[in-house]
Amino acid sequence: MGGPGTRLPYIKIQWYIKRKEGMSPEDFHKYWEEDHAEFVQNIPGFRQITKRYSQFHPAPEFQAKAAALGMPTLDFDGVAELWVESVDAYGKHMSQEALLEASQKEGAMFMGPGSRVLIGYETLVHGEPVPGIPSEKSYTL
Question: What are the EthD domain coordinates in residue numbering (predicted)?
Answer without folding.
Answer: 20-112
